[in-house]
Amino acid sequence: MFMNFRRISKCQCMQLLTTGLLLSVVMICWKDLDHHVVSHMRSYTYRYLVNSYNFLNSSYALTSIHHNKKDEVSDVDAGFVNYPYLINQPGKCGGGGGDRKSQDVLLLLFVKSSPENFERRQAIRDTWGNESFIWTELGARVRMVFALGVHPDVRRRSRVQSELMQEDRAHGDLIQQNFLDTFHNLTSKLLLQFHWGHKYCRQARFLMSADDDIFVHLPNLVKYLRQLLSTESGVKDLWVGHVHRGAPPVRRKDSKYHVPHDLYPWPSYPDYTSGSGYVVSGDVAAKIYHATLLLNSSMYIDDVFMGICATAVGVYPQEHVYFSGEGKTPYHPCIYNHMITSHGHATDVRTLWQAATDPTVSGNSRGFVSHLYCTAVRVALLCLPYYQNTYSCMAAFT
Predict the structure, then answer these.
(1) Cβ(166)–Cβ(194) under 8 Å?
(2) Number of helices (H), then strands (E), in the chain
(3) Each residue's pLDDT tens digit in the chain (398 positions)?
(4) pTM, 2 dp
(5) How far apart are CA 100 and CA 361, in angstroms?
(6) Phi then psi for 373, rounded to 5 degrees?
(7) Beta partners for 145?
(8) Closest CA to 333 of 319, 312, 309, 354
(9) CA 241 to CA 315: how far, in whole Å?
(10) What are the C-alpha distances in Å from 324 to residues 124, 250, 343, 362, 366?
(11) Are 183 and 211 in contact (CB under 8 A)?
(12) Separation between Cα atoms, residue 272 and residue 242, nearest integer Å
């Protein structure tokens, strides 16, 4: 049977061509469509309809894990690989331990840094991580340390390590353990933070974890933490940041976030905050520390592992609209007056610090007219799609 092409109208021809084009696009993009649409629909259904992660306790319990090398596991911290310290600051919080007799610390701030990022660390010391400035200008005792592993390149490791030792002698703020500083060892860095904090700075009211390309508006953060402490109920079970809810595991093997089914077979992660910057209260820091002693740390995505630990001890993340996600926040004085964190500042930390802490910024939103103006500016900046990974549109109205 032959088709008479003369009888096909121009309209039908266009329909056939359009259908063929759409089918071709779907076939080419099916893998991405499956990842971005199907997996997210499946994960959200699981998160909001099933909403039970009790299986994590049994699946990640250390009793169900068989270790091949018993000598790699600490006798004190069962299941936790006790990497030796290469650089340590046991007296950073005022004493040799974590008892309440040591200095009262409002915030223990861990900055996750790579060994070669000398310039980023110095920029942080000169700006938002300057302990002397925070004490002099804000009257708050904040202790900041950089958490590191060893350089993964054997050929460069010796030279970088020598430079790190020199840097630590000058500043006394590096904490380093003997594990490779790679993406797949970020969970080891998370364990380093909570174990060090529990041992050497247990008196800290709050603990913050941040990347070294994060900008933290310390004056706004200190004000926020003090407001929490001033409430009659006090601060308990606080875990605050940019929350990811119902996030699906990435199954694409070409992604650095790839997680195979045998490591995490379920369609949705428990809720967690972006690992770029979050804050927990002292009681939550203690709970997470104890959870790391009981749970297998094979999940190498550190913020997901944080969610697993928190779920195991009954702690759930709280959204704060001015904690940034993966993106950089807009530059504007009406934003600076509220911002807590912003992501993606590897080179502009000094200029942003100068602009964000300018004394004139605090006066920009005072008064009814100024408040309306800043609200309109924030709506224009934050309610656009390309800023969805920073602050949500709701932040414009707070």
Answers:
(1) no
(2) 13, 10
(3) 445 545 556 666 676 677 767 655 555 444 444 455 566 677 767 666 666 676 676 677 764 433 333 333 333 344 456 799 999 999 999 865 545 455 799 999 999 999 999 999 999 999 999 999 999 999 999 999 999 999 999 999 999 999 999 999 999 999 999 999 999 999 999 999 999 999 999 999 999 999 999 999 999 999 999 999 998 677 899 999 999 998 899 988 999 999 999 999 888 999 999 999 999 999 999 999 999 999 988 999 999 999 999 999 999 999 999 999 888 888 999 999 999 999 999 999 999 999 999 988 876 666 788 889 999 999 988 887 665 567 888 998 88
(4) 0.84
(5) 37
(6) -60, -50
(7) 110
(8) 354
(9) 13
(10) 18, 21, 6, 20, 24
(11) no
(12) 8
Query: In whole angstroms, what is the distance from residue 217 CA to residue 138 CA?
Result: 12
Half-sphere exposure at residue 48, Cβ-oriented, CA atoms within 13 angstroms: 9
The two three-digit tokens of residue 263, written as one number: 């490591």
Instruction: Tell me the longest C-alpha to C-alpha distance in the chain.
Output: 94
361-387 CB burial, b ≥16 within 10 A, e <16: beebbeeeeeeeebeebbeebbbeeeb
Distance CA 303, CA 322 (A): 18
